[in-house]
Amino acid sequence: MHLKKLTIKGYKTYRDLTTIVDLHAGVNVLVGLNGSGKSNIFSAIRFALGGDGVSKEQQRRAMLHESQGQQVASAFVEVTFDNSDGKIPVDKAEVVLRRTITINTDVYEWNGKEVTKAEVDSWLEGAGISNKHNTYSIVENGKVTALTRMSDAKRLDLLKEVSGAHIYDERRAESLAVLETTRKKREHIAEVMDDIRGKLDRLDEEQKELQEARALSRERVAIESVIADREKRQCRERIKELEQQASAILADLGGEQGVMTDMSAEVGREKSALEELTKELTETSTRLRFLSKRREKLSTEHAEICGASEGRDEAVEKSTAEMEELRGRLERANEELDDVTTAFKGKKAQLQSIEEEQDSLRSELAVATRKREKLAVKKGSGPSYASVAERNEYLSEKVASKNQRLEEVEGLLGKQTAQLDEEQQEIDRIGAEIARLEAESQAYAGQNGDADIATTERNIADTQDEIRQKMKEINALREEEESFSRQRQELLEAVWRTAPRAVREGYTWLMESGIDGVHGLLIEHVDILEQYRLCAEVTGGLSLFNILVDDDKVGEECLSFIREKQVEIGKPLRITLTPLEQVRIINSDVSYPRGEVANILPLVDVIESPDWARCAVEQVWRRHVLVPDLEMGAKLADFHLDAVTEGGDTSTWRGVMKGGYTSPERYTRLRDWYHAEELEVDINRNRERIAEAEKQVQQLRTTERELQEHLVDLRCTAQAQLNAQSSRLRQVTEDREAVHRLENSLELAAKLKREYEAEREQLELDIIAIRAEMKTKKLPSGALTVAEAQQLEKLEEEIEEKGHRLTQITEAAGELADAIARLRDRESLLIGMQIPNLQKELKTVEMNCTEATIIWRERQRRRQWLAGELAEIEQELALREERRAELEESIVSKSKSVEDMEQEVAESERTILKLKESYNENQNEITDYEDKFKIADSKLDEIVAELSGSVERIEDETKKIGEGVTIRQLQRRAMECRGELEKYPLVNNKALEQFAQFDGQYKELLRSQEEMDQGQVAIDELIAKLDGEKDNNIIKSFAQVNEHFAATFRELVPGGTVKMRLLKRDPSPGLDEGEDEEEEEHHIGAAATVDEKYAGVSIEVMFAAGTTNMRRMHELSGSQKSVVAVALLFAILRSEQPPLYLLDEIDSALDAQYREAFARLISSVTNPNPLGHRPPPPAQVICSTCRPEICHISDRCYEVSLENRSSRVTLLSDFQRYFAQA
C-alpha cells in the first residue's frame, strides 16, 4: 500500500488545482526555495488523513488560500492510495480519500461517498496509518531540532507515547471516574437512608390517627348515602306524575299543531305561488322594457340604413362616369404615346442614315487628305530629310505611335462591341417582360370576381336566417325548461316542507360528500300506483326520507361526516340510515292470513322497487295490510299485522286506531315526488332537444364562419389582383423608361463604335502608306509630274466639296437630334407622369367604387336581418303584454287568499302558544326535580368513588340506620360527625401506603450499597492490572527503540555507539555495587510503577570507535545533536513500522558528512535488507530537502515553486542541473 496521487486546490498556498501523479512506492523528493510551499504539501497530506482539527471557523479560514485580500470559498485535498496488497480493509484496488472544507463545513469523502472522520480513522488504522498512535510518521520541519532540545523527562514522555501508554492512562482514568461516581452515590444513599428512617417513625404515629378518622368518615358517608337514596326515590315518583300531565298537554298540542301545519303548508304553497307570479311579472316587465329599448334601437338603425341606401344610385352613376372619363383620358394618352414612339423611331432611322453617310464622307475625306499630303511632300512642301536613314527613323517613330493608338482603338472598339451586345440583350429581356405583363393585364381585365362575392354574401345571409330561427327555437325550449324547473323545485320544496329542516340539511350535505355506497332516499326507489299512494304515505311517514346505504361501515362513515359537518357549520343535522346488508339479515318472513281473512292485500305487493332495495321496502311496509274497512282490520290483530284502508285510516295490532277522515291534501309527498320526476324527464328531454339544436347552430355557425372566411379570401384575392394589376402597370412604365435609357445608351455606343472603326481604318491606311514610303531608297526630288499636279488639284477640289457636304450633313444631323430629344422628352413625360397619374386616379376610383359596393351589400344584409328582428320583437311584445295583464289579475286574487289564510294561522298560533306555556311550566317543574334527582345520584356516586374498596363496611353502617329515622334526624347526626372529624384537620390519608413504600425503598437502598461495595473491589483490581500492563509495555518499547536507536546510529555514524538509559528517581537500597545496571533498569517490581520509579531517559553517545568515554546530549555539538536526533527519530519509526514516511527537511540540520549516510538510511526504508535481523516491511517515503544528497537515491523528484502567490509542483527530471543553477 502506498500513496499514488495527491490533488490540492485552494489549500494554503495552493490556489489552483495542483496534482502530483504517479508517486513512486519508494522515495519521492520535493525540492524548492524556502517559502515555495513544500511544507504545505505535508500539511495537506496530514489534513487529508484527518490530522488537523478544524472545529473552529478561524482554523478553517487559516487553511483557505488568500491572495490580494481575496479568500477562496472552499478547499480540498484528495489522496489516492494503491491498495493492491489489500492493507486498507476495503474491497478495492484503489482508494480515494478526499477532505473538503469551507468557512462553515468540513466533509470527508471515501471513494466518492460522504463518510465521518471516525470511519476514515478506522480504515486508516487498519492499514497502519493512525493520527493517534503513529504520530512520528509525519515529521514536520523543526521536529529534529525539538528532539535535540528535549529534556530527559520529556524523553520519558516520548517513550510512553511510543509505547501507547496513553491507552492505559485513558482506561485507568475511566476506572477512577467510575470509583468517584460510586463514592458520591454511596454518600447520597446514606443521606437518603437517614431521611427514610425519620419518615418511617413519623408515619407510624399518623397511621393511628388515620384509623380513628376513617371510622367517623364511614358513619358520615353512610348517613349521607341514606339521605341521598331517599331523596332520589321521592324525585322519581314526582317526575312520573308530571310526565303524565305533559303527555296529555302534548296530545292537545300535537292535534293543534297538525292543523296549523296543514294551514301553514297551504299558506306556504300559496305564498310560493304568489312569489312565482310576482317573479314572473317582474321578469315579464323587465323583458318588455328590454324589448322596447331594443325595438327603438333596431328601428333607428334600420332607418339610418334605409336613408343611406337612397343616394346610392346617384353615387354609383357619378363614380361610373368618373371612371369612363379617366379611361378615355388614359386611352388618349396611350395613343399619343404610340404616335410619339412611331415618330421617334422614324427620326431615329433618319439620323442613323445621315450618320452613316457622315462617317462615309469622313473616311473619303481622310483618304483624299492623305493623298494630298503625300503629293505635297513630294512637291517639297512636306518635311525635308538629310538622308533616307533620317527619314526612316522619323517614319519608324510615327509608325510606332500609330500602332500604339491602333491597339488602344481596337481595345475600345472591343469594349463598345461587348457593351452593345449586353445592352441589346437587356433591351430584348425587358421587351419580353413588357409583353408578359401586358398579357397578364389583358387576362385580368377579362376576369370578374364580383359574381362569386355576391353569391357568397347571399349564402351568408341565408345561413344567418337559419341561425336566427334555430336560436328562436332554443330560446323557446329554454323558457319551457325554466318553467318545468320552477314547477319541479316547487314540488320538491313542498315534499321537504313535510320533513324537519335538519333532515333536509343532513341529506343535502351527505349527498355532496361523495361517499361511496350511499343510494339516496327510500322515496327515490319506490313506485306506487296512484290509488295506493295515500295509504302507503300514511303508513310510511318519515321513513320515506330514510337514506339507503350498503352496510354499517358506510353508515358509520356517513354519521362521522354528519357529526363533523354539524360542528363545522354550527347547525343541527339529522339523517336516518337504512343499512341494506343488515336489513336483509334481520328481516323476517311475514305470513299473511289470505285464507282466513278475505279481501286483504299486503302493502308490499303494490309497491315496486329495485331488487337491491326490496329489503328496505319490506322493513317499512311488510306488516301493513290493505283492507276494505277497519272492521276487517281488527281480525288482523291476532296475526300481529296493521291494517290500512285506501282512504288512509289505520288500525294497529295493539288496538290503536286513527283516521275517520284523512284529507288527501295533507299527504302529497308521493304525488309531488312522482310529478317532480315526470318534470325531470321533460327537462331532460328539453335539454336533449336544446343540445341537438345548439349542435345544429354550431354547425351553421361553422358554415357561416367558413363562408365569411371564403368571402374574405375572395375580397383579398380581388384586392390582390387589383394591386397586382397596378404593380404590373407600374412595372411596364418602369420597363419602358429603362428601354428608352438603354436605347439612348445603345445609340451613343454605336456612334462611338463607328468612330472607332473609322479611326482604326484610317490608322491602318496610314501605317501601310508610311511603311511603303520607308521602302523607297531615295528621297523625293521636290518636283511633280503633270499627272501628279492634276491629281493634286482634283484632290483639293474634292476635299473642299466633301468638306462642304460634311458640314451640311452635320447641320441636318443636329436638327434631327434636337427633334429626337423633344420626342424623347414628350415620351418620358407621358410614361413617367401623365399615364401613371391617370392609372393611379383610375385605380383609386375603382377601389372606392368596390368599397362602396361592399358597404352597400353589408347594409342590405343588415337591413334584412333588422327587419326580421323587428317583426319578431313586435310579436313577442304583444304576447308579453297579454301575459302581464293575466299575471296582474292572478296576483291580486292570490294576495287576498293569502291574507285570509294568514289570519287563520295566527289564531291557531295563539292557541298553540298557550299550550306551549303550560307545557313549559310542566317541563320546568320536571327539570327542577330532575336536577334534585341528579344531585342525589351524584352524591351517591361521590360516596361510592370516595370509599371504593370499603363498600361492605359502608353497608354495615347503613344497616344500622332504621327506616323509622327521619331525614332531619339523619342530617343532624351527619353534622355531629363532621364536627368530630374537624379534630383531625391534618390527617394523612396515605400514611399506610407511604409507610409500605418507604420501607421498600429502604431495603432496596441496602441492596444497592452492597452491590457498590462489590464493584469497588473489582475496579481496584482492574486499575492494578492496567498499571502492570502499562509498565511492561513501556519497558518493552524502551528495549525495542534502544535496539533500533543503536542500529540506526551505526548506519549514520560508522563505528559510533549510542544507548539510552532509564534514570531512577531513588537508588534501589537492595542493589549491589557489582550488579549490572542495565538489567536493573529493565526490571520493574510490583511495589512501584514506571512513573514512580523513573524520572527520565538519558542518551549517551560515542562518535569514534577508538574513544571510551560516552558523552551526554548537552556535551555534543549542534551537528552531533542533529545526528543523534535523526537516529532517535528513525528508531521510533522503525519500531512503529508505518507504511508511509513524510519527512519535511529533516536533513537541513545535518552536516555534509552525515547527509549521504542519511540518504542511505532513507533508501534502506524503502528497500530493507532481507538478510537483516527482523527486517521491517518496505515503506514509501515522501521527503523535502534543499540538498542534493537525497535526490541521488530518489525514485521521483519534484520541484515546488511559487508564482503569483500560488504554489505549483512539476516533475524534475535533472536535479543536478537544478542544484547547479540554485
UniProtKB/TrEMBL annotation:
Alphabetized, the UniProt keywords read:
Coiled coil, Nucleus
A single GO BP: chromosome organization
Q: Return one GO MF term.
A: ATP binding
Matching entries from InterPro entries are given as:
P-loop_NTPase, RecF/RecN/SMC_N, SMC, SMC_hinge, SMC_hinge_sf
Q: Where is the SMC hinge domain?
A: 516-637
Give start-end of the signal peptide: none
Question: Which superkingdom?
Answer: Eukaryota
Q: Where in the cell is it found?
A: Nucleus
Q: Name one Pfam family in it.
A: SMC_N
Q: Known SUPFAM superfamilies for this protein?
A: P-loop containing nucleoside triphosphate hydrolases, Smc hinge domain, Tropomyosin
Give the CC-aspect GO terms: chromosome; nucleus
Q: Which residues form a coiled coil?
A: 189-371, 406-494, 676-713, 739-812, 870-932
> What family name appears in the similarity comment?
Belongs to the SMC family.
Protein name (record): Structural maintenance of chromosomes protein
This protein's species is Perkinsus marinus (strain ATCC 50983 / TXsc)
